[in-house]
What does this fold into?
Amino acid sequence: MPTHPLLDVDFVELLEPYLEDVGHVFQVFREQDSGCVSFGVALGSEQWFVKSAATSAGVVSLRRALDVHGAVRHPAIVPLRHHFPIKDGLALIYPWVEGEVLYHPTVAHHGGRSAPESPMARFRSLPVAEILQSLNAILDAHLAVEKAGFIAVDLYDGCLLYDFEAQRMALCDLDEYRPGPFILEADRLPGSRRFMAPEEFSKGSAIDIRTTVFVLGRILRLLLDAGDDERKWRGSPSQMKVIERATASDPADRFASVAALVRAWRGACSGHC
It folds into this structure.
């Protein structure tokens, strides 16, 4: 048995039986769009999040995650602690972070994101100052992403993990982030249409940091709105002007970098974010 059954192991043939043998599996996430299966595992006083893939597409995604975490570190990004091969696949080990994912496509709430009991609706009902604090953490994390030369792909509210008690935002499942710029060779990139830039749906288009700017603009817009219909804006007119530029249809009309977006946003917040 390795010194630490999750951090020192080199290979596991059958992951779930192994996890049940070395610890207590207190949660299983099977129905994920990526085809991955994830586990919450307790080992004594420690809690871990184990994400695995045994399909070719899932393994490719998790290997992208290895590249992202190898290049990007930020307090708001849940860190990768270890990885090891499993039979026909790969497993990634993260610390368990308390909180609720703001949206999970496989968890149904009557009324969707706007259902009163949903994490997104509860987040949107928080005081604006608390929301701005979380948005600042998301933007700041993407300054580190930009510095490392990566482009945000498949960033949406399902990547946002919020601890309502501690008032802390964390980013998770950044598995599709890629070094950029690059040319889109598929018909579209993975992601939630609500958050994606137009060029992400056009084969042969250039995907660069202005694509990240667009997605971040959509996050600012949707998290500061009281509902999915985008008719209950809770921010200021100056903040909306920043968002409108960030989410311009033509990439040339957007901010040229995440850093430029962040400067404009913080100026529009007048020191409140």
In short: Helices lie at 15-22, 56-71, 119-124, 128-147, 209-223, 237-246, 258-268.
